[in-house]
């Protein structure tokens, strides 16, 4: 279990080994095959999933703005040492995103029920968990932001290359006898 404990980021913020062992014993192992969702957007999530092997993608539903009609955007890549679903423990309400395994993904999860029981039965342990989770969320938030920026850049580069490969609107209309002025008016009416 030592390898799994070392892969769970909150434990590095907890100095007492006995607390780490106590928290780990509350966790449930799970394995998700490639393409399987850990949870989906708008579902109630009652577990925080710590990824100990494999990887997953964080997906957000959006309006289909892409030429290919894509309605989901990968916002971040989750890897070993990351965790997802913590909003389900911290807040009430449905998940704001989906998480899908990109490779066989092994996790350890802590349920909201066990976290609440921990608060009642062991408030000192719960306080250490809260502090550790807060620190880990801050660090992971910065990592996910870098991942999101990288994914946005790749997406913009794809879109730019798609646009440069497509014939210009005015060139297409010039072939049909339309003037540049009328083509601009048509485009402006959609803006």
Write the layout of secondary structure elements.
Layout: H1 2-7, H2 17-26, E1 28-32, E2 37-39, E3 47-53, E4 56-61, E5 72-78, E6 83-84, H3 86-90, E7 98-101, E8 105-111, H4 112-121, H5 123-165, H6 169-175, H7 180-190
Antiparallel strand pairs: 1-8, 2-7, 3-6, 3-8, 4-5, 4-7
Helix pairs in contact: 4-5
**Which value, in Å, is the CA radius of gyration?**
23 Å
Largest sheet entry? 4 strands, antiparallel
Terminal CA distance reads 57 Å
Any idea what the shape is? elongated
What structural class do you assign from the helix and strand content?
alpha+beta
Q: Using DSSP, what is the number of strands?
A: 8
What's the rounded overall pLDDT mean? 79
SSE pattern: HHEEEEEEHEEHHHH
**What strand order characterises the main sheet?**
1-8-3-6
Q: Give start-end ranges of low-pLDDT stretches.
A: 169-191
Beta-strand share of residues: 15-25%
Estimate percent helicity: 40-55%
**Annotation field: number of helices:** 7
Summarize the structure.
This protein is an alpha+beta fold and 191 residues long.
3D architecture notes:
With 191 residues, the chain is an alpha+beta fold. It has helices at residues 2-7, 17-26, 86-90, 112-121, 123-165, 169-175, 180-190; strands spanning 28-32, 37-39, 47-53, 56-61, 72-78, 83-84, 98-101, 105-111. The strands form two sheets. Strands 1-8-3-6 form a four-stranded antiparallel β-sheet. Strands 2-7-4-5 form a four-stranded antiparallel β-sheet. Helix 4 (112-121) runs antiparallel to helix 5 (123-165).
